[in-house]
Design brief:
The protein has 417 residues and is of the alpha+beta class. It folds into four domains: 5-68; 72-172, PAS domain (Beta-Lactamase, 2-Layer Sandwich); 177-249, Orthogonal Bundle (Helix Hairpins); 257-416, Heat Shock Protein 90. Helices cover 48% and strands 25% of the residues. It has nine helices and 13 strands. The chain has helices at residues 5-25, 32-71, 89-94, 114-130, 174-219, 225-249, 261-278, 298-314, 367-378, and strands at residues 75-80, 83-87, 134-142, 148-160, 163-172, 257-260, 281-289, 293-296, 320-329, 333-339, 382-388, 392-402, 407-416. Strands 6, 7, 8, 9, 10, 11, 12 and 13 form an eight-stranded mixed sheet that branches. A five-stranded antiparallel sheet has the order 2-1-5-4-3, sandwiched between helices. Helix 5 (174-219) packs antiparallel against helix 6 (225-249). It comes from Cytobacillus firmus (Bacillus firmus). This is histidine kinase. It is an enzyme of class 2 (transferase). Pfam families: HATPase_c, HisKA, PAS_9.
C-alpha cells in the first residue's frame, strides 16, 4: 500500500482542528483529546487507504479477467438467472450480433432451440445447487440471423461484479458434427455395400451351381428337354437379380407428371390378371374417390403396385381374395391399401422387411421390397406393413395428391377375377 492519502489527510485535519482551538480558545495544544482524535484519525485513515487499495486491486483484477475472456477464441457468456451480463467478442460474432449491447440484458433462453431449453434449465439448477463445473453439454443455438448452430458448452458458477453468476464457454461444433454425420453415412453405405455384395454373390452362386451341373450333364450326352428349361430359368433368375440391383445402384432421371391413380391401379390389375386367375385369387377394388390425381413417375409407381400384388398372390398358395382400397386420409394424402388373406408374417420379422437380401420367400432376394420403399420415399410418401400369421397382410402406401376435389359421390367397387 504505497498511497496513504486518506491517513495523512485525516491526521492533518485533526492537527488543524486542534490548532484552531489553541488559537481561539487559548487551550493547550498537546492535550489528551489531541492525541486521542489524532490516533483515531490515523487509524480510520489507514483503514480507508487499505479498503481503497483492495478495491483498486479488485478492479484491476476484473479488468485483467475481462481482457483474458476477450482474448479467448471461444464464445463466453456470463449470465444470472438466464439474463446475459457479459459477452466476449467471440460470443458476439458467434451469435451474429452487431455488438455486445445487442446481447447484454437479453435472456439466454432466446438463443436456445425449444428442444434444448429443458436441458439448459435443468443444468442451471444443478450448477446453482452444486457450484461445480459441468463439461461438454450440447445445445442447438438459434442465432440472431436465424441460422441454427450446435455448441458444446461448459459452465461454472462464478462471482461477477459482486453478483453470483454462471460463466458458460461455448465451442461451435456444427462443422465437426456435420463431418461426423457424413463419415457415419459413408460408413453405413460401405457396410450396406458389403452386405449387398455378399448377398448378390450368394444369390447368383446358387443358380450358377445349377447351371454348371446341367452343363456337365450336357457333356455326357444325356440331354433331356427339361434340362434346357431349367438352365434358361436359372439364367433368367440371375438376370432378374442383377436387374434389381441396377435399379437400386444406378440413378435415373425421373420424370414426374400428374396421373390419375384410379387409372394406374386399373392398368396394374389388368397386367396381374393372368397370374391371379392361375392362382385362384380374386382381386377386389374399393374406391370412393373421384379421379384422384397424384404427382408421380408412372412406371415406377406401377412397378411398386405390381410387386406388392405379386407378393400378395404368392402369399395365398391356396387362393383367396386381395382387396385394394383407395381412400383419402387426413390432410392432402391418399391411402392405397393392399389387403390379402395369405399366410401372414410374424411380427418380429416385419421391421426387417425392405432390407437387402432379407426375404420370407424361398428364392427371394428382398431387393424388390427395398426398391418399393425407395420409390415411395422418392415420391414423398410412406409404405407401412401390418400382418398376422394365418390371417393375412396389409400393405399401405400413403401419397400426397394434387388438387382438393377428390371426394366421390358414391362408393365404386370393381371385382376382377
Amino acid at each position: 500500500m504505497s498511497k496513504r492519502t486518506g491517513q495523512i489527510s485525516l491526521v492533518i485535519i485533526s492537527v488543524l482542528f486542534t490548532s484552531y482551538q489553541t488559537i481561539f480558545s487559548h487551550e493547550t495544544f498537546f492535550t489528551f483529546d489531541f492525541f486521542l482524535f489524532t490516533g483515531i484519525a490515523w487509524f480510520v485513515g489507514w483503514q480507508f487507504d487499505k479498503s481503497r487499495y483492495y478495491a483498486e486491486k479488485a478492479r484491476a483484477s476484473e479488468e485483467s479477467y475481462k481482457m483474458l475472456l476477450e482474448s479467448l477464441p471461444v464464445s463466453v457468456l456470463i449470465h444470472k438467472d438466464f439474463e446475459i451480463l457479459y459477452a466476449n467478442s467471440s460470443a458476439v460474432s458467434g451469435l451474429s450480433a452487431s455488438d455486445k449491447g445487442a446481447l447484454i440484458g437479453r435472456s439466454l433462453l432466446d438463443f436456445i432451440e425449444m428442444d434444448y431449453k429443458g436441458r439448459l434449465q435443468e443444468r442451471y439448477q444443478y450448477i446453482k445447487a452444486e457450484k461445480q463445473l459441468i463439461n461438454n453439454i450440447e445445445y442447438q443455438v438459434k442465432r440472431l440471423d436465424g441460422a441454427r448452430r450446435y455448441f458444446e458448452v461448459s459452465s461454472l458458477y462464478v462471482e461477477f461484479e459482486g453478483k453470483e453468476a454462471v460463466l458458460s464457454i461455448g465451442t461451435d461444433i456444427s462443422d465437426k458434427k456435420k463431418e461426423q454425420e457424413q463419415l457415419l453415412q459413408k460408413s453405413e453405405k460401405l457396410a450396406l455395400l458389403g452386405q449387398m455384395a455378399a448377398g448378390i454373390a450368394h444369390e447368383i452362386r446358387n443358380p450358377l451351381t445349377s447351371i454348371k451341373g446341367f452343363v456337365q450333364l450336357f457333356k455326357s450326352s444325356s440331354q433331356k428337354e427339361e434340362y434346357f428349361d431349367i438352365v434358361l430359368s436359372e439364367l433368367d433368375r440371375i438376370n432378374g437379380i442383377v436387374g434389381e440391383f441396377l435399379v437400386l445402384a444406378k440413378p435415373t432421371a425421373d420424370i414426374f407428371e400428374k396421373q390419375d391413380l384410379t387409372k394406374l391401379i386399373s392398368e396394374v390389375i389388368l397386367l396381374s390378371n393372368t397370374q391371379s386367375i392361375l392362382n385362384n385369387v380374386e382381386i377386389k377394388v374399393e374406391n370412393n374417390l373421384h379421379s384422384p390425381m397424384i404427382h408421380c413417375e408412372k412406371n415406377q409407381l406401377k412397378q411398386v403396385f405390381l410387386n406388392i400384388i405379386k407378393n400378395a398372390i404368392e402369399a395365398m398358395p391356396d387362393g383367396g381374395q386381395l382387396t385394394i382400397k383407395v381412400m383419402k386420409k387426413t390432410g392432402n394424402t391418399i391411402s392405397v391399401q393392399f389387403i390379402d388373406q395369405g399366410v401372414g408374417i410374424s411380427e418380429d420379422r416385419i421391421p426387417s422387411l425392405g432390407e437387402p437380401f432379407y426375404t420370407t420367400k424361398e428364392k427371394g432376394t428382398g431387393l424388390g421390397l427395398m426398391i418399393c420403399y425407395k420409390i415411395i420415399e422418392n415420391h414423398n410418401g410412406r409404405l407401412t406393413i401390418e400382418s398376422k400369421v394365418g390371417e393375412g397382410t396389409k400393405m399401405e402406401i400413403e401419397l400426397p395428391f394434387e388438387g382438393a376435389n377428390v371426394e366421390g359421390n358414391e362408393n365404386r367397387k370393381n371385382v376382377l377375377i
